[in-house]
Amino acid sequence: MAAQNLQSVPAELSRGESQEQSQEAAQREADGQANFDRVMAEDSRIEPRDWMPDAYRKTLLRQISQHAHSEIIGMQPEANWISRAPSLKRKAILMAKVQDEAGHGLYLYSAAETLGQNRDKMTADLIAGKARYSSIFNYPALTWADMGAIGWLVDGAAICNQVPLCRASYGPYGRAMVRICKEESFHQRQGFEILLELSHGTPEQKQMAQDAVNRWYAPALMMFGPPDDDSPNSRQSMAWNIKRFSNDELRSRFVGMMVEQVRVLGLTLPDSEIRFNEETRKWEHGPLDWNEFKEVLAGRGPCNAQRLERRREAHDDGAWVREAAAAYAAKRQAKQSMTTKEYAA
Ligand code: FAQ
């Protein structure tokens, strides 16, 4: 009936209506933009139903989905050590940490979904090798001490990068980060404690801890992303209050934190050029191998192929769980609609 009415509307009138509609749409867009600009200027928050520029939505989706993938792939280097942890207590702690990473991935996928991205599509992009995840998880975890170095350096870098993201202008992302950071802080302490125990153990244990720190230090510094001059996204992300500090700024802060903590550990950082620049009031570090970083991003790091292969296997192995969950949901829905119909009758 409605369709017939529309068809019978004279062409001129329907043109008039669509002009009105497009004027309304333009007005809505202008109001939306004005609200968005006000939110940015006041440094408050955009929520999922608010109007936002397409480029802002895309940038958030890029960053949040990469972040989610990093948490999921990031379980692999540590999961590999669960069955080889030196005691039941260490095994339980490591299992809890790895489960936390899975949870972080899920909060972040949920935050990305509020921007209109389908979770299956994000997973498909990851397993097809089309999506990025953090460079750091393409390095191997060779000894038990690597569990300490990952916790101390990798989670330490993650905290340094993510605490400012708790104030990100997009509500669901900022709120997810608050919870994630609390858990990351426990993760870093457990890594520190593993290294502390090893560094006070036998000479071999201390050497194992030092070797792990030597291997993870530079990749951890590269987690913060390319140098500012080579970071195409930073400026706009900072203007939108997503990122609060530049990559180099956060890297420098991290080096300052590690310099203090490594003394307590009784270990050293493999970087003789670390110094505090009195003029700039910033910590400086020695050169990093940015070619290695590019190679890892291009999929040619030491473990890229292995990480993706394992993720694909896990996805295939989980097919029956997804099918069972979907069948159960359909059954419940059918039961519910039947009950509603019976109730109505
Ligand atoms: N790895 O212009 P920028 C964790 C890409 S979670 C891979 O500077 P942006 C917890 C970047 O995407 C670790 N790619 O980019 C844990 C861009 O490429 P695109 C993950 C990188 O976005 C611990 C291009 O380079 N954390 O560790 C990396 O402004 C232990 C140009 O770079 C997050 O994701 C990299 N390291 O800044 C779990 C935090 N760096 O997208 C398990 C949120 C840069 O244009 C165990 N993300 N790229 O193709 C961020 O803060 C930002 O996205 C940055 C990059 C800082 C990572």
Protein topology:
Layout: H1 2-7, H2 11-42, H3 54-73, H4 75-79, H5 88-113, H6 119-127, H7 145-162, H8 171-199, H9 203-222, H10 234-239, H11 247-265, E1 275-277, E2 282-284, H12 290-297, H13 304-317, H14 319-344
Antiparallel strand pairs: 1-2
Helix pairs in contact: 3-5, 5-8, 7-8, 7-9, 7-11
Ligand set: Phenylacetyl coenzyme A
Rough outline: globular
Amount of beta strand:
under 5%
The DSSP helix count reads 14
Rg, Cα atoms, Å: 25 Å
Helix content: 55-70%
User: How would a crystallographer describe the biggest sheet?
Assistant: 2 strands, antiparallel
Return residue spans where pLDDT drops below 50 for at least 5 consecutive residues: 1-13
- The computed structural class is mainly alpha
Distance from N terminus to C terminus (CA atoms, Å) equals 28 Å
Order of helices and strands: HHHHHHHHHHHEEHHH
Q: Let me know the number of strands.
A: 2
What average pLDDT do the residues reach?
A: 94
Describe the 3D structure.
The chain has 345 residues and is mostly helical. It is built from 14 helices and two strands, in the order H-H-H-H-H-H-H-H-H-H-H-E-E-H-H-H. The chain has helices at 2-7, 11-42, 54-73, 75-79, 88-113, 119-127, 145-162, 171-199, 203-222, 234-239, 247-265, 290-297, 304-317, 319-344, and strands at residues 275-277, 282-284. The chain is globular. It binds Phenylacetyl coenzyme A.
